[in-house]
Amino acid sequence: LMIALIGITYQMLGTLLEKYFPADNEEVRAKLISGVTGNVTMETNKRMWDLAQIVKQSRALSALVRQSDFGAGRQLAQSEEGRAFLRELDHFLAEFGHREIRTDIIYPTWGEDPAPVLSFIRGYLDANENSSPHRQQARLVQQREELARTVQARLRRDLRGRWLIAPLFNWVLRHTQTHTRERDTMHFELTRLFPSFRRLLKELGARWSARGEIEQWDDVFYFSLDELAHAADQPRDLRALARTRRAEFQASQKQIAPGIIRDGVAVDDAPAPTENAAGQFTGIAGSPGKITGSARVVRGPNDFAKLQTGEILIAPITNPVWTPLFAIAGGLVVEVGGILSHGAIVAREYGIPAVMSVRGATQIIRDGQRVTVDGNRGVVVIEN
Question: Quick one: pLDDT at residue 312?
Answer without folding.
Answer: 97
